[in-house]
Amino acid sequence: MDLVLDPPKPTLVTYSALMSRAVSLGKPRVALHLWNLMCSQQNFYTRVQHANGDVIVDDDVLILDVIFCNTLMNAYAKLGDHESARLILNAMVEVVDGTEHDGIPPTQPTVVTYNMLMDACKVMGELGEALEVLDLMTLCADVTGDVSLLPDAWTYTILISNMARKSRRGGGVAMVLPPLIKTCNPEGRKIQTRHSCFYIR
């Protein structure tokens, strides 16, 4: 192959790796720039369709998966943009709310997806929004029967951090974790946490 006349096209893994690295280096805006660049490519899946609207499935076509969606959501999370992160989740689960995030196909979220959204809420100190995500996780696990969607240790760590931020900004927050775990974790999954009970003020 002539790499000059016929250079290889970047794949989904290429963009995922570069975006993940950018976020890890504290450059989420670079990751979002890569996302916009990816959307402009001629082999992006929304640009490659049959006459009936079906996506052409080919090795060169950039079709997003849950790992990429989680990486993109993480970029928004680092910026504290929980609204954009929520739009990504809405697009993944095909929620019709009058808005959509261009380029995100229907994709099955994972517990990581919900944790990324909760992390975006934490950055902006949006405790109420974070608790809504917690409720959404347990609801989705109940509806689908998929216990892997239940809150995990990372979920509670993010929530505790959010509560600490809220407390520092004014007012006190008291919470005992075991009852919360019992309520939000009806399947009795083991939760590894450093503290089972805490008080923040």
UniProtKB/TrEMBL annotation:
The keyword tRNA processing does not apply. Keywords: Repeat. The keyword Manganese does not apply. InterPro entries: PPR/CCM1_RNA-binding, PPR_rpt, TPR-like_helical_dom_sf. This is Pentatricopeptide repeat-containing protein. It comes from Cyclostephanos tholiformis. The lineage of its organism: Eukaryota, Sar, Stramenopiles, Ochrophyta, Bacillariophyta.
